[in-house]
Amino acid sequence: MRHNAGMDLDLYKDDLGAVAASDLHAAIEQFTRISQPPHDRLEEGYLIDFKQQWGDDTIKSVAAFANTFGGILLVGVTEHGGRADQITGVPAPPRQELKNSYASSIASNITPTPPFEIWDAPLPSDQTKHLIIIRVRTGKALHLITKKGLQPVYIRNENESIPADAARLQSLISARVLNAGRPPEGDPLHKPPGGRLLINNAQANTDGYRQSPTFIHIALIPEEPLAIALDSAVERRITAAVRDVYPAPTGFFMQLEIDRGTDWYQVKAPGEAHAQQYQLDHEMRWGVAGSGAFHLIAQVRAENTDVTQSSAKQGEGWSLVDLMTDLACTIEAAHRFWKYIGYFGQGRLYALLDLNQLEVIKRAGFVDAKTRELGEAYPAIFYTGKRPALRLDLSRSVNMQRNARASVEITYATRTQRRAEAVATATNQLLRGIGYGASLEQLRDYATK
């Protein structure tokens, strides 16, 4: 899509990422009427705000838009008397992505993160300066500023972003707080991309959703459904994230199977090379949807064998370390996908673990790194050599269950600085659902390694 010098571009609706930088700049000039006499230029109001540079006032405006009617924030545009004055741009330091920097600032200082999109375009006259466009939609929740020194709740009042008074705050709470953090209706794990996620020994259930008798299915779902135009560039990013993030054994990603549809894309790693080398049958499939959902389904059944020493077969089981690794890597892979498409908002992690009577694998002969004591531990099986064993006090219920579910809120901070907390929380939920009791502190400590 290429617009004629921005003449037919709607800043409130169109996909600005598909517009050439020169056309986007022309669209801003037309939108602000910057070439008109001062009294005819665009005026700030409920849905539009100008900022000369990034600062606390921009955070206030984003939060105010989200708590009121939504709107557009133009950073790098000065104002005089509330009307657009000049398009000056903001300096773009070498090797720094302003768009990601500003998006991270929004996601780190407003909670929950409001639904927003952000674009940047260098000025035609000076490529070292950029114009930043932030489009904010009305949020379902009450969006609070967490940055020290600022009021927590801002609203838009004509051309100003002001702290909410008691009456307006009560109105906002009544209208929105009940919806905050509410997961989407239905079960997102039964709506994978393409209608199915298929791994070996699969049997179709009544929903047409195919699954192996033993598996882990992890899905990260955006709080706000997206409308992503999947193409080969997006597919390459997804495939690269899969290869880079998951510490699979050498050769596991040599032959990837690709499947795609109008609004979905899947990648499957058969794992044949690894199966031949270690007699370990392991398959993984990743899928993304045009709505922004990111899925992983993987086999969890493994031979209870110390693959590093090629010892005799001891039956079958599943690895707790592999489970935690899959959770951590899927959060990271989804984060890279969302960052690439420009989504910095909230999400939720869902997980379904089906063990079909499998026992967790536990081995003796491990040395505690801190105490140097010899004891039992839970090893990695598929990720052997990539992840250390886990020392954990795990108690077992009288009646064990064959499957369990987890649901954890995912924020921008959770996907970056506090990922270990999300992994530990989801792991604990799955363990308890099966019938195990574990220490959250021990799980957090391991998840940080």
Strand order of the largest sheet: 15-16-17-18-14-21-25
Taking pLDDT < 50 over at least 5 consecutive residues as the criterion, the unreliable ranges are 1-6, 180-184, 201-210, 306-313
* Tally of structural domains: 2
Provide the β-strand percentage band.
Answer: 25-35%
| Quaternary structure state of the chains depicted | single chain
Cα radius of gyration in angstroms: 25 Å
Shape estimate: elongated
Q: Given the helix and strand composition, which structural class is it?
A: alpha+beta
Give the strand tally.
26
Q: Helical element count?
A: 10
Word description of this protein:
This protein has 2 domains: 16-179, Schlafen, AAA domain (Methyltransferase, Cobalt-precorrin-4 Transmethylase, Domain 2), CATH 3.30.950.30; 195-447, no CATH class. A 7-stranded antiparallel sheet has the order 15-16-17-18-14-21-25. Strands 1, 2, 5, 7 and 8 form a 5-stranded mixed sheet that branches. Strand 10 (154-157) and strand 11 form a beta hairpin. It is an alpha+beta fold and 449 residues long. Helix content is 26%, strand content 27%. The protein has helices at 21-32, 56-67, 98-109, 166-176, 232-245, 272-278, 320-341, 412-415, 419-434, 440-447; strands spanning 48-51, 71-75, 77-80, 83-87, 90-91, 110-111, 116-123, 126-136, 144-145, 154-157, 160-163, 203-204, 210-211, 215-222, 257-261, 264-269, 284-289, 294-299, 302-303, 316-317, 347-354, 363-367, 374-377, 395-396, 403-410, 436-437. Helix 5 (232-245) runs antiparallel to helix 7 (320-341) and helix 7 (320-341) crosses helix 9 (419-434). It is built from 10 helices and 26 strands. The two termini are 45 Å apart.
